[in-house]
Target: Putative pre-16S rRNA nuclease
Amino acid sequence: MRIVGLDVGTKTVGVAISDEMGWTAQGLETIAIDEEKNQLGLKQLDVLLKPYKVDKFVVGLPKNMNGTIGPRGEASKHYAEKLEKRYKVPVVLWDERLTTMAAERVLLDADVSRKKRKKVIDKMAAVLILQGYLDSGKF
Model:
C-alpha cells in the first residue's frame, strides 16, 4: 500500500510517499505550481507517481489555530477534490497546523543553509504530514 502526502501551497506542492508497508514517509519532490492560473502541477504529479500504485492521498489541511478553516484550507480542499476525481482513490485531509514550522526546525537543526531550506521546506512538510498520518494508524 502506497500513500502519498502533499503539502499544497500557492506556488509549490511538496510530495512525499510511504514505503509499501505504510510505516515511513520519504520526500520525493517539490512541484512548482501557479494557483492563480489554475496550474496545479497534476501532470507533473502523474509523471512523478507513475512508478507507484497509489492507494490514497493525504493532503495537509491548514487550519487556523482556533480550528477554523480559512482561505488556504479551502484551497487545500479544492485540491483534494481534484485529486479524488483524477486518481479515483481516497483523499484524506490532515490537520497540518505548525507543520511548516516543524519542517523549518528540522532543517535548521540539520544546519541546512537558508537557500537550500527554501528548496526543500515543502517536501519536508509533506513528509511530516504523511508521517503524522501514518503514525496515527488511521488508515
Observations:
- The helical segments are 42-49, 71-87, 99-109, 114-136.
- The radius of gyration is 14 Å.
- Residues 2-136 form a domain with the Nucleotidyltransferase; domain 5 fold (CATH 3.30.420.140).
- Residues 114-136 form the longest helix (23 residues).
